[in-house]
Amino acid sequence: MDSVFLTDLAAAHGASASHVPAAAAVAWLDELLGLLFPERNVAAALPDAGAIGAALARNTTKLGALLTAFQAQLPVAPDQLAAAFAATLPATRAALLADADFLAGTDPAATGAAEVIGTYPGFYATAVYRLAHTLHGLGVPRLPRLLTELAHARTGIDLHPGARIGSPFGIDHGTGLVVGATAVIGRFVVLYQGVTLGAIQVEKAFAHQKRHPTIEDHVVIYAGATILGGNTVVGAHSIIGGNVWLTRSVPAFSRVYHRAQVEVRSVEGPVEGLMFEI
After folding, report:
1. Is the C or the N end of the chain the one with fewer CB within 10 Å?
2. Triad 78, 82, 84: Cα angle to 5°
């Protein structure tokens, strides 16, 4: 084996102390979600508040251990930062319960908030986003993106931890949905599958500018819509139809639809001359 190659690998392994073990991060996240939402808990339910408090304390300790990988890059000590994160959990859970109630109230297929929490990929992706967004706001590097990319892999929903998403918020279906790092989403917003809130300018020089759109309150964006640009604002109470391509702002109470021509023919029996190519 080439010695230069092995030397490079050794250097990479030596630098890996600054990386969070992915398996440990996944285990921590899954445990935390199970504690916050017993509908997602694969273990036995905990008997009382004391047991739940002890389990949350252990989970916080695990987070502190994960954060030691970034100790030199953190604004405070890992255990202090883990404690600060734990202090936000009541507000995060309240926001997510509002998300679940909102989606249960808007999706005719949902039987209730418990079903949304336990089975909906959109809720799972939102829950992971809200936890990751908190860590992002506390100055934690890399781990927030690792968590949202885990949710992306599991659900097909890509919510950047830097985006700002109000509550309540709903994702219906959601596969292929993308929300960029500087997007801002208000309250009572519903996004469907294949929606992209993206950037027009993708050059690295624009990394620290607002590149993604702002979606105000009470907006519905249907499947396949693409909305681009940091200066693009979708006004409150608007509806963006499926497959719309939008790069400019629209005022409140707008209805934006993609115009397409669909021809439907009715025939009696087979049509002669049909050719199929595979």
Report:
1. C
2. 115
Q: How far is the C-alpha of 229 from the C-alpha of 212, rounded, in Å?
A: 5
With residues binned 3-state (H G I as helix, E B as strand, rest as coil), the percentages for the chain, rounded to 5, are 45, 10, 40
Alpha-carbon span 98 to 170, nearest angstrom: 10
Tens digit of each residue's pLDDT (9 = 90 or more) over 222-257? 999 999 999 999 999 999 999 999 999 999 999 999
Longest dimension (CA), the chain: 76
> Using one digit for the tens of pLDDT, what is the confidence trace for 58-105?
999 999 999 998 888 899 999 999 999 999 999 999 999 999 999 999
Task: Give the Cα separation of 205 and 200 in Å (integer).
Answer: 13
* 273 Ramachandran zone, left/alpha/beta (phi>0; psi -120 to 50): left
Per the listing, tokens 């989606």 go with 103
173-181 contacts, C-beta under 8 A, 24 or more apart: 173/121, 173/122, 173/223, 174/121, 174/122, 174/125, 175/121, 179/212, 180/211, 180/212, 181/211, 181/212
Of 159, 158, 161, 184, residue with least CA distance to 236: 184
Predicted TM-score of the model (pTM): 0.90
Catalogue the E-assigned strands of 180-278.
Answer: 184-185, 189-191, 196-198, 214-215, 220-221, 226-228, 233-234, 239-240, 245-246, 255-256
> Tens digit of pLDDT for each residue in 157-209?
999 999 999 999 999 999 999 999 999 999 999 999 999 999 997 666 666 78
Percentage of the chain lying above the pLDDT 70 cut: 93
Residue 148 CA to residue 27 CA, distance in Å, equals 14
